[in-house]
Batch of 4 targets.
Target 1
Amino acid sequence: MSAAAKPSSAVQVAELRRMREAGEKIAALTCYDASFALLEDRAGVDVVLVGDSLGMVIQGRNTTTAVTVADIAYHSRLVAPFLQRAFLVADLPFLSFATRERALDASQRVMQEGGAKMVKLEGGREQADIVEYLAVRGVPVCAHLGLQPQLIHKMGAFKVQGREDAAAEAMLRDAKILEEAGADLMVLECIPSSLGKRITEQAHIPVIGIGAGPDVSGQILVLQDILNISPTVTLGHKPRFVKNFMEGAPDIEGAIRAYVQAVKSAAYPAPEHCFGDAVAVPKALPGGKSRKAAGSLPKTSPAHAHRSPRR
Ligand code: KIV
C-alpha cells in the first residue's frame, strides 16, 4: 500500500464523535510552537488548540483582545507540521468574525495558511448565523460558551458563568442553537459542574470543558498553566481549575503525558478544580471569618479565571 493510500490515524471530527459516544475522554491542550507541538502529539494529546490565550501567555498582554488573525495563522503554521495525530483547532480572535465575510476570510487564513482543521469562536446564539455560514461552506466550527474572555471589556472581570437559573437555561438553549447551526465541537469555560453535565447530556457533539466539571466529553487547559510557568500562575493568581502537572513529572514531556493520562482516566478534574452552584451564603459566618477566607465555601466571585490579571 502506498503512503498516500494508507488509512490515516490522524484524529478527525468523526473520531472525536466516536470518542464521545464510547465515553473515551478527549484530552485537549493549547500549543503555540513547533517544539511543544511535537511533544504534545507524541504524548497523545487528541486536540491541539492555537488559542488566542497566546496574547497572554506568549505576548504578555492583559487580555486576548489584541490578538490578530495574522498571529493565529502564524502560530498555527508553526504547530501544524508537527502534528501527525492530533487535531488542530485555531481560534478566531476578537472581532475577526464580526461579519460573515470577515469570518470566512479569517477561517480561510487560519486553515489554508495555518493548517488548522477547525476554527473556534466565542459566543452564544448571536453567533448562530456565522456558525451556519461557515459550516455549510465546509469550515468545521467549535463553539465556545460560558466565560468568553473576548468580552472582558464589557464584563469588567472574569467570572464563573451560568450560576443563576436564568443564565443556566439561556446557556443550555445557546448550546442547542449552536449545535443546530452546525457546530461540530463545543468548549465550555468556567461554569458550574452541574451545568457542564446538563449541556453535555443534551448535546450530540463532543463537549470539552475548562473549569466545567468532570461530566463533559474531554478537558482542555492552557499548556503554560499545566507546566506551571504562565504569567498568571507565576504572579500568584492560579485559577481554580489549573493543576500543575510538572509536580512529580521527570520532564516536560512527562508532564504532558501525565495530563493526558489524568484526563483519560478522569482523575482530572478533581472536585477542587471545579465550580459549584451558587448557594445562599449565611450573612455572618461562624468564627467571624470573612467569606473570602472561608475556603470551603463554593466560589461565587471571579473565577480568577484562567485569564485573570496578567492573563
Ligand atoms: O484561547 C484559549 O486558549 C482558549 C481555551 C483555553 C479554551 O480559548
Note: The chain has a mean pLDDT of 89.
Target 2
Amino acid sequence: MGRYEIKGGKPLNGTVTISGAKNAAVAILPAALLVNGCCRIENVPDISDVRILLAILEDMGVKIQRPDESTVILDNSGFTGKSPNEELVRKLRASYYLMGALLGRFGKAFVALPGGCNFASRPIDQHIKGFAALGADVVETEDYVSMTPGPNGLRGNRISLDVVSVGATVNIMIAATLLPGQTVIENAAKEPHIVDLANFLNTMGAHISGAGTDTVKIRGVDALRGGTYAIIPDQIEAGTYMAAAVATGGNVLIKNVIPKHMECITSKLAEMGAEVINYDDAIRIKRPGPLRHTTVKTHPYPGFPTDMQAQICVCMALASGVSRLTESVYETRFFGYCSELESMGADIQITGKTAIITGTDTLYGATVSAHDLRAGAALVIAGLAAEGTTWVKNIHYVERGYERIIEKLAALGATIRRVED
Ligand code: EPU
C-alpha cells in the first residue's frame, strides 16, 4: 500500500481534464450484460472500481478489449449467466448492479453482497423491494442475494421507492429493461448518471423515459442490440478539482464537464467568494480573495451532493467565520475525515447531522488516513492547501474513483507524489 506525500501551500494553476463518471461507468458496465452481442463504451475512467468490475465480467465469460485506456469493448456472446466471483464482488459497492443485470437477462441471480466504502450503513432493501415487485422470489442472507422467478413469472410493475436511492433506481431500471410490460419507478433518483444509464440503454434499443425526473418509465423490449456509447464526465471529480482550486487560492480551467451538472456545487463555491466562468463544456474557477463562510445541506440531485461534503468542508475550514454543513443522505459520513482535518488544524464540532466549522487562516501538514473515497479526496485537498508536508495513508480508497490523480494535480503545479510503503 502506498501513501501520498504532498508539499502544500501552493495555489493550483492550469488546466485539468475530467474523466468519465465513475458512478455512471459502474452502472453501465453491468447493464451491458443485457446486450446481445458487442458494445463499445467510451470515456470509461481508468480507476480501480472499474478494473475490478471488468475482472468480474471477464470471469463471467464476457470478452473484454481495451483499445485505449478510456475505451472498453464488451462481447457478451460467450456469457452464460455464471454467478460473479464472490471475492471480487465484495471489493466494490456497485457490484450490486449485477443482481439487476442477471435477473433481467437470465431471470435468476446469485450474487454475494457488495463491499465498497463503509462510511455508513448502506442497506439494499429498496433494491430487493424492486426485484420482488418485478416478480422475483428473493432470498437474502448475510452473505448473498439469490433470485428466481416467482409463481407468476417476471414482469414490469409500478414501484414507489421509500427513499430516493440511486442504487435502487439503477438496479430496477436494469432489471426491468428486458421484462415484458411496463415498469414505473416513482420517487426515483435524478442524478446525472441515472440519465446516462437510460441514454446508454436506449442507444442499445431499450424504451426508457423520464430519467432525470422522479418518475422513470421502462417499457420492456425483447432484446438489446450492440452499439457505441460515451459516458458523461464525472460531476464529483470536477467538483473535487474545483474545491482544490478554491482551497489553494488557485485559478483552474476544468475541461470536459457539463456545467449544468455542476450548478449545485459552483453556486456554493461562488457564495464563498470563488469566481466561476461557465463555458459550453468547461468551467474556469479562481479565488481572487479570502473565502467567506456559508451553509450547505446535502441532498439527492439536483441538491448539493453528499459525495462533495468532505471536499467543501475543507474550503469551509479555510473560510472566515462559522460555516454549517448538514448531511442528509449518510449521517455518519463526517466520521471518515473530520478528526483527520482537526489534526491539521481545522476547527470542527459535530452535532448530530451538522458539522459547525470555524474557519482558520492556515492548515498544517500532518499524517492522515483516508477512510473512504471522498474523505481521501478531502485530505488530499487539505494537504495541497496546508503549510508543510502531509502524508495521506490508505490511498487505495482515493484510487477507487480518481483517475491519474497524481499526474493531474502535478500538472496543476502541485508537489505530490506516491510513496510506496
Ligand atoms: N437507502 C436505503 N435503502 C436502500 C438504498 C438506499 O435506505 O435500499 C438509503 C441509504 O442508506 C442512503 C440513501 O438511501 O441514506 C441514498 O442511498 P443511495 O442508494 O442513493 O446510495 P448508493 O446507490 O448506495 C450511490 C453512489 C454513492 C453516493 C450515493 C448518494 C454509486 C456506486 N454510489 O450510492 O457514491 O454517495 O449514491 O448519491 O453510485 C462515491 O462515489 O463516493 C459514493 C459513495
Note: The radius of gyration is 21 Å.
Target 3
Amino acid sequence: MRILLIGPQGCGKGTQAKLLASKLGVPHISTGDLLRSATGELRKEIDSYIVAGNLYPDEKMLEVLKKRFGESDCEKGFILDGFPRNLKQAEMLDSITKVDRVIEISISDDEAVRRLSGRVACPSCGAGFNNATMPPKVRGICDKCGGELVQRADDTEEAIRKRLEIYHRETEPILEHYGAVRVNGENDIEEVFEEILKLIGIEP
Ligand code: AMP
C-alpha cells in the first residue's frame, strides 16, 4: 500500500508514519530525513536551503526520491512523509507512481510552534524527545544513551513560522488535488493512529 501523510510541521506525521510502516511492513520514507542523511558537499548545499526554512528545489528532490523508490524494500509500498509539498511535486509524484491513500493530519499553527520549539534529538542514537510534550528525564540529556540532546537548526521560531507559511500557501492545495481525508492531529498519538488505521481499513 502506498500512503501519503500530509500535515504541517509538528503534526506528528513522522511518528504516525513510523507506526504505520511497522504495522504494514513497508518503509517509512521521510524526504527531510533523506536530505539530512546526505554528506560532504551535497550536505552543505542541502543545508543552505534547510537551515533557512526553504524548500530544496523540486527537480533535485524528485531525483533523491526516485532513487529511494528504486530500492527493493519499496516493492510492497511505502509511507511517504514530507513529499509532495506543492502541486508541482504532486504532479511529479503522479508521473512516477500511483498513490493509494492520502491522509491529512491537522493541527493549529500555535500547536505546531509549541511542539516544534520543544523538539530535541540525540545525535548519537537518534532518539527523539520533546520538552513540551514528551520530555527526557533530565533536560538536555538522552534517556537512552546519555548523549547530549540538540535542537534541529530549522526549529527556531522564525524558521518554524516560515515553514508553516509555506505549508499553508503551497502544500494545502494538494489536499484537494488528492481528495485527502483528515484526522485530528491534536488527539493522542494512539487515537490518531487508530483513526488512520480505520481510514485505510486495517484492524487496530
Ligand atoms: P522535514 O523534516 O519534513 O520538516 O523537512 C525539513 C526540510 O527538508 C524542509 O524544510 C525542506 O528544506 C527540506 N525538504 C523536505 N522535504 C522536501 C520536499 N518534498 N521538497 C523540498 N524540500 C524538502
Note: The chain has one domain: 2-199.
Target 4
Amino acid sequence: MKTSILAALAVLALSSTAFADTIKVGVVGPFSGPFAIQGKNFKAGIDAWMALNGAKVGDDDIEIVYRDLPAADPAQSKALAQELVVKEGVQYLAGFYFTPDAMAVTPLLEQANVPLVVMNAATSAIVTKSPLVVRTSFTTWQTSAPMAKVAKERGVKKVITVVSDYGPGVDSENAFKTTFTAEGGEVVDSIRMPLSTNDFSPIMQRVKDSGADAVFAFLPSGPTTLGFVKAYNENGLAKAGVQFLAPGDLTQESDLPALGDAAAGLLTTFHYAVSHDSAENKTFVEAARKAIGNPAELSFPSVGAYDGMHVIYKMIEATSGKQDAQKAVDAVKGLAWESPRGPVSIDAESRHITQNIYLREVAKAEDGSYYNKEIATFEKQGDPGLAALK
Ligand code: PHB
C-alpha cells in the first residue's frame, strides 16, 4: 500500500514536471528614443512584480518578451504584435504606451486567442474594441473630470483647454469641458495641438490673450509635458494670473527634478503618486526603485505594469496555463485588490480599472526635492468616458 502511494506520488511529480511550460508575455513599449523612460517604467513595474511574486505561476515559468516601439506608430505596433504571437508564441500581449498603438492591436486578439492587458494607453474607447482587452492604467476621462470639480471649488470661472490632438487629449478636453460646464463654469476656448508640437510659446500667448483665469492641459508624459510646463513658467503665465490645472501626466515624478522650482505648487489630479502612503506602495516603490536603477526615474507607467502583471498572473492561474483568452479575461472581471495606488478593481462590464483619483500638489520634501503630495481623494472612480460613448 505504502509503496503504491509513493509510486503514485512519483508519477504525479514526474507528470507535473513533464507538463511544466514556459508561458510567454509579449510587452510592447517605448524602450528607446525620447519616451524611453516611460518604457523603462513598464519594465521596472514588471520586474518589481516578478521579484516580489516569483517568475512562476503553478508549475509554469513566466517569460517576458519585450519589443521596442519608440513612438506612436500603429502599423509597426500591429507588426510587432503579430510577430510576438506568430513567431514567439506569446499567450498574452501587454504594455502599449500610446493609444494608437493599442488600438492597432485590438483587431488581432480574437483570432490569435490572446488577451491584451493595456498598461498605459488611456483613451476610453480602447476597451470597447475587443472583449479581450483589460486595462490596468487609467483613462484621461477618469483623471481629468475630477480636476473640473477642483477648479470650480477653488473659484475658477473661465478656463481655456489645451490638449494634444489625438484620443487621450480629445477625451481629456471633453471630460473637463463637460464636467466644468455642468458645474457652472465656462470654457472660453479649446486648443488642440499636433502631437509633434514642441514650441509652446505661441500657445502660451493665446492662453494669455484668452482672458481665462486658468489653463487646463493634457499632453502625453515625456519630453512633451516637460516642455509644456517649462513654457508655462517661462512665458510668465502664473504671474499673468493664469492658473495651471492638469491631470498628473504633466507633473510625473521623473520630470520634477528638471522642472525644479517651476513645478512648485502645481495642482494635478491622477491615479498614482510615488509618494502614496501605504504599506503596499512602500513595498512596491522599494522593489521598483531597485529594478529601475535610478530611483529619480520612477513614474506612473510602473504601477500600470505592476498591476497588469497581477492581472496576468490571475489569468494564468485561472486557465492553469492553457491558452484560453476568453476564460482568462472572464476570470479577472470583478477582481479587486490593494494596489500600490490604493484599492482597485476590474469593472466586470467594461474591463477597465476602477480606482481612487487623488488631487495632488507639487510640494518640497525635507531634502529639497519636489514630489506630488496627495491632498484629497475622489474615491472609487469608474470611467465616465465609457458612459459618454454609449
Ligand atoms: C496615450 O497615448 O493613451 C497616453 C500616453 C501618455 C499619457 C497618457 C495617455 O501620459
Note: The longest helix spans residues 2-19.
